[in-house]
Specification:
Helices cover about 45% and strands about 20% of the residues. It is α/β, with parallel strands linked by helices. The chain has an eight-stranded parallel barrel with strand order 1-2-3-4-5-6-7-8, surrounded by five helices. The longest helix has 20 residues. It is globular.
Length: about 270
């Protein structure tokens, strides 16, 4: 049985092509994979239709790819000068089409910039690229839990229901303790908008600096019926198959412990 239905982000293991990765993950009973799809990963946007079709067949026979991560930032689609913005939009369109071709259900963008002023106005009023899949934004700036940033995020996602959040335990834990953070109340607002959770493990421990709190709050929501897809993100060293598998299984046991009700009081 898989680690409590938890998937694996491909960043955790190196040296495998996509068919090798999916065959290995399937042999280890990993239920699904999140694939790093940009230029720093498997470059889906530059693969031929024949290659993408082969990868999809491998996913259907071994383990599916449910989501693809881009190296693009949400701000790239709105903020840079026109030529750079156009290139980012084209890159996203190609990547999303390739992700859909291999059976993925969403594409993740980074959120390294907290929108305000002209950037926020552009995000609220500008057109998104025409893509086939929903977008998830991974909040990569501690300022996202500040009151104005949360208000902007909620307004943006209210106007653009095709965008939701990928919650990363390390990123949100760092935001919890940043200057101006709304703390646990802000975390709850972000989790309201989240559809995927990455259990981030860089070797310092999943319980470090608030990560367990983020995971537990997400786990509580799953238990109450919120649909949140969970995967392990191993970013420590080494990134071998065995090291990644060991951390994946440890994360599965850790997650299972968070799923158990507390023991009764004496």
């Amino acid at each position: 049985m898989s680690a409590s239905g938890i998937g694996l982000y491909s960043i955790g293991v190196r040296g495998l092509d996509v068919p090798e990765l999916l065959e290995w993950a399937g042999a280890q009973n990993v239920p699904f994979v999140h694939l790093r799809g940009g230029p720093r990963g498997f470059e889906l946007a530059r693969q031929s239709p024949q290659v993408l079709a082969r990868w999809r067949r491998c996913g259907e026979s071994c383990v599916p790819v449910t989501g693809v991560t881009a190296d693009l930032d949400l701000a790239d689609l709105f903020a840079p000068p026109v030529p750079e913005r156009a290139r980012a939009r084209t890159e996203l369109e190609l990547l999303a089409a390739a992700a859909a071709a291999i059976g993925a259900r969403w594409v993740r963008l980074l959120g390294r910039t907290v929108p305000r002023g002209p950037l926020l106005a552009a995000m609220l009023t500008g057109e998104l690229p025409q893509i086939q899949l929903p977008l998830l934004v991974e909040l990569h700036h501690p300022g996202w839990l500040a009151p104005a940033a949360l208000d902007a995020l909620e307004t943006l996602l209210e106007r653009r229901p095709q965008i939701r959040v990928l919650a990363d335990t390390a990123q949100l834990a760092a935001a919890l303790f940043s200057a101006g953070s709304t703390g646990e109340a802000g975390l709850e607002r972000v989790l309201d908008l989240s559809r995927v959770l990455h259990l981030s493990d860089d070797g310092s421990g999943r319980d470090a600096a608030g990560r367990a709190l983020v995971a537990q709050r997400a786990r509580d929501r799953i238990g109450s019926g919120q649909d949140i897809e969970v995967a392990v993100e191993w970013t420590g060293q080494p990134r071998t198959k065995q090291a990644c598998l060991d951390r994946y299984r440890e994360a599965g046991r850790w997650w299972a412990q968070r799923s158990k009700p507390p023991p009764p009081r004496p």
